[in-house]
Amino acid sequence: MEIIPAIDMQDRRCVRLYQGDFQRVTVYDDDPVAVARRWVAQGAPRLHLVDLDGARSGHPVHTDIIRAIVRSVDAPVQLGGGLRSIAAVERALELGVQRVILGTAAVHDPELIRQLVQQFGDAIAIAVDARNDMAATAGWTETAAISAIDLVERMAALGVRRVIYTDIARDGTLSEPNIATTRALVRPGGPAIIASGGISTIDHLRRLAEVGVEGAIVGRALYTSDLSLSDALAAVQ
After folding, report:
1. Degrees (nearest 5) of the Cα angle 105, 109, 114?
2. Of 166, 235, 228, nearest to 207 (Cα)?
3. CA distance linking residue 182 with residue 158, whole number of Å
4. 153: which residues sit within 8 A by CB, 6+ positions away?
5. What are 26-77's pLDDT values in tens digits?
């Protein structure tokens, strides 16, 4: 199981939101590139970048920072936030991002997802962000009329091979991940699942590993030192 540090960017800074609320933001560093270098130096096998301003605006905003991160670290990078067209995905991949993550488009434009999977295969991942088990879109500011589980099934039918599942109510709270729903999403022959939201202890990571997820995205717990990256990596090796 991969332990993947999250780098969420807003106003060119490294931040964390509480339950996805843009009004409840904590700034952890003014230099996302330096943060990326730090996590990779500590052994991160992959980085999870989120362009929060892009998620709200519908198009990537922090392109220059993303490019700088890709060029400065020796680890693959995955990127989400505002990627809602073939052109946006192509531009992200041209920056050197290995994997792009689409969320809003998965709900509102499944035909786009089908085309992207056919064209880019494993480079396409889907973010299934759930509030009260229902999928959220537009930077988590809107709630769709489809459940997280149904959305994963719909994406699997389109050929999607990887899903990042986040329980919004737990994200940034240091509480615990939604093990029950995560377990329901991990199915033989289904998309690989990466868990996110509320992960803050070694025990959380071990329970997720037992469920069979491919990876776990850790954010606030790393920044607050509730969880050390080296300890997390050692626990799942």
Report:
1. 95
2. 235
3. 20
4. none
5. 999 999 999 999 999 999 999 999 999 998 888 889 999 999 999 999 999 9
CA pair distance 14, 98, nearest whole angstrom: 21
Q: Kind and range of the H or E element at 25?
A: strand 21-29
Q: CA gyration radius for the chain?
A: 16
- With vertex at residue 196, the alpha carbon angle to CA 190 and CA 202, rounded to the nearest 5 degrees, is 110
DSSP secondary structure letter of residue 122? G
- Using one digit for the tens of pLDDT, what is the confidence trace for 194-203? 999 999 999 9
Residue 187 DSSP code: -
Q: What whole-number distance in Å separates Cα of residue 61 and Cα of residue 16?
A: 17
Residue found under tokens 């041209």: 94
Task: Using the structure block, give the residue that is written with the tokens 């329901």.
Answer: 184
To the query of whether residue 8 is one of the catalytic residues in this protein, the response is yes
DSSP H helical ranges for the chain: 32-41, 52-57, 63-72, 86-94, 104-108, 110-120, 148-157, 179-185, 202-211, 220-223, 229-236
Of 52, 50, 83, 84, nearest in space to 69 by CA: 50
In contact, 222 and 5? CB cutoff 8 Å: yes
Judge whether 122 counts as a catalytic residue.
no
Residue 100, phi then psi, degrees to nearest 5:
-110, 150
In sequence order, what DSSP letters do the residues of 98-116 get, joined into one string? Answer: SEEEESHHHHH-HHHHHHH
Q: Which of 8, 51, 53, 171 is catalytic?
A: 8
Token pair, residue 11, equals: 């106003």
Catalytic residue among 51, 53, 129, 171: 129
